[in-house]
Amino acid sequence: MTQTTPDAPVRRQRAQVKVRTLRTDRWWVVPLLTFLALSAFLIYGFWAIFDDSIFVDPYIAPFSSPCLAEATCPEGARLFGWAPIGDWYTLPGGLLILGLPGGFRFTCYYYRKSYYRSFWLSPPACAVQEPHGKYTGESRFPLIIQNIHRYFFYAAIVVGLILAYDAVLALVHKPAGVGTWVLIANAVLINAYTLSCHSCRHITAGRLNHFSRHPLRYKAWTFVSKLNAKHQQLAWASMFSVMGADLYVRLVAKGIIAFPFA
Questions:
Q1: What is the pLDDT of residues 13-57, one digit of tens each?
Q2: Distances (CA, A) of 87 to 76, 90, 115, 126, 127
Q3: Which of 63, 133, 226, 259 could form a Cys-Cys staple with 48, CB 3.0–4.6 A?
């Protein structure tokens, strides 16, 4: 760490590794797998935006929920039967809402570490040489935008509740359907991941000086803290669950999976 005096400017500098790596294990495996998994998720998400097989009663594809545009929403897919955006909007409906949960994941503390290492190699792993000559942290554009993470958290809470509502509707109308339980599992994982967020833990009781004066907030903070300890696992589990649930609904809607058994 760079030593400074009270009057000296703070210098941001990576730990210096003079050789390519000090590691003797296969350190590159995790960044490579992370790169492949995140790339697959991005490619699937891009495809899902433009695919219009979003609904087969009572299932709605999570990547298209809530469905808000009248021109692109089937009758039963509209949130509470209401499409607040009229028929003037004819672009893919996913463009309206995917930026909210996508922005939440993109600015997530865990995902930052994942794609900084796997996409930008900054650095690719501990005790591995830093390939970039300059380091400014998240103090400049574009990475300073990461500071809006907590605002995406508020939006992600709403989206998570809507996915839970979709799962309940499926349970009421088709309790024995495989898709029902796929949507329920996805809703549980999505909401668990959202609540495990570091921002949620801070908002719950992170600024309290005396827990004893706020017993309910302390209990909530304790619960969120337990989820927070599993934030990495929930990040991956919810990413695969939302992609899997979305694909399942689309395959049923396309007739690739027989609906009577779905």
A1: 555 655 566 677 888 899 999 999 999 999 999 999 999 999 999
A2: 16, 7, 38, 52, 55
A3: 63
Q: What is the pLDDT of residues 151-175, one digit of tens each?
A: 999 999 999 999 999 999 999 999 9
Extents of the domains making up the chain: 29-128+147-261
Residue with tokens 């395959």: 251
Whole-angstrom Cα distance, residue 179 to residue 260? 11
250: nearest Cα among 67, 35, 13, 61: 61
Core vs surface per residue 181-219: b (16+ CB within 10 A) or e: ebbbebbbbbbbbbbbbbbbbebbbeeeeeeeeeeeebe
Distances (CA, A) of 243 to 30, 57, 237: 21, 19, 10
**CB within 8 A of 198, min separation 6: which ones?**
109, 228, 231
Cβ proximity of 1 and 13 under 8 Å: no
